[in-house]
Design a protein that fits this description.
The chain has 331 residues and is mainly α. Helices cover 74% and strands 2% of the residues. The chain contains 17 helices and two strands.
Length: 331
């Protein structure tokens, strides 16, 4: 009965591909060739882009497992002949990895939470309220995005080195206080970008939600925390992940303010020098680290810095993609 219905159904075309192509004067074949050619081109393009991104990591991963003699063997490209974990042990020891990792985690989380919270308040204010010089202040936000922080490094250094606290000069460098103060003032790392993203997201919210909340007796702050923030979870998630990753790998603000606090971005910049001192101590005198061996230790150190971010991406991939997709719809 089912076969009979399928054969008698006028909407089902039972002709072969070539019969339908002949009936369309070859248009069907041309469209099919274009479709598959475009799919193949897209696949090749995506494969090339992914390879360009992953290939440096694959090279570093291969070098990190090579013994010293393999580093100077021209016949070896990716697969080592003498598999060794010595590079990992040396890099972990030189980075003081356990302590440094814990410090980097809590600093990144603290800074990211403060940045996202303050930027949410400012972005919401730009999207909903009218105040004097609103366009000028938003222009300043755009300047924060465009102008690199290196241009104000001297003023930042002098300001926090000779910080005026009720007439007393205090040196705030060497602590996390300057970083927290910058984040509270929306002058932290990439804060202008977060304000812009959050503002654009809140502009897509219907004003009727706030009007209904005001009618029910909610004030601006209660409306923000009870109505707007729960609906802004996608953009908050995106900004938090961006802030966490950028803070994790930041060396500019970390070198300028954190000082004696060991974080991965600071220790990785001096890893080659530490390795030279390690060889000097090992050999009982002065020693210059071979270039190839130094590059292997540096590559291993870079992997140790990137590895927690890769693990974070694996567990947060779905949440991150969903937040970006939802943010794109709202914007």
């Amino acid at each position: 009965m089912t076969k009979k219905n399928k054969s008698t159904n006028p909407s089902v075309d039972t002709r072969s591909f070539w019969e339908r192509n002949e009936a369309s004067n070859g248009i069907l074949l041309n469209e099919t060739i274009k479709k598959y050619a475009l799919s193949i081109f897209r696949a090749i393009l995506l494969f090339g882009m992914c390879f360009m991104i992953i290939q440096p990591l694959l090279n570093k991963l291969a070098v990190s497992f090579m013994a010293e003699q393999d580093l100077y063997d021209t016949t070896i490209t990716l697969i080592p002949k003498h598999f060794s974990l010595s590079n990992w042990k040396i890099a972990i020891d030189l980075l003081n990895y356990k302590t440094t990792l814990i410090n980097t985690i809590w600093v990144s989380i603290l800074v990211s939470v403060i940045e996202v919270f303050v930027c949410c308040l400012v972005g919401y204010g730009f999207s909903r309220f009218q105040f004097p010089l609103k366009r000028f202040w938003f222009f300043c936000v755009l300047l924060v995005i465009v102008i690199p922080p290196q241009t104000i490094s001297t003023s930042l250094f002098l300001h926090f080195r000779y910080f005026n606290f009720f007439g007393q000069t205090i040196n705030l460098r060497g602590s996390i206080l300057p970083y927290i103060m910058l984040c509270l003032g929306c002058m932290g790392l990439k804060n202008g970008l977060y304000i812009f993203m959050i503002r654009q997201f809140f502009l897509g919210f219907p004003f009727e939600l706030e009007e209904a909340a005001y009618v029910d007796g909610c004030g601006p702050f209660k409306t923000f925390f009870r109505i707007m923030v729960p609906g802004a979870k996608p953009i908050i998630t995106s900004c938090f992940l961006f802030s966490f990753v950028w803070q994790w790998t930041d060396s500019f603000y970390s070198n300028m303010f954190l000082g004696r606090l060991q974080v991965l971005s600071i220790n990785i910049s001096s890893l080659v020098e530490r390795f030279g001192m390690y060889l000097a101590k090992l050999n009982g005198g002065t020693a210059i680290a071979p270039q190839g061996y130094s590059n292997a230790i540096l590559s291993t150190g870079v992997l140790l810095v990137v590895l927690p971010l890769i693990i974070l991406y694996i567990f947060c991939q779905r949440l991150f993609v969903e937040s970006l997709a939802s943010t794109g719809v709202k914007m």
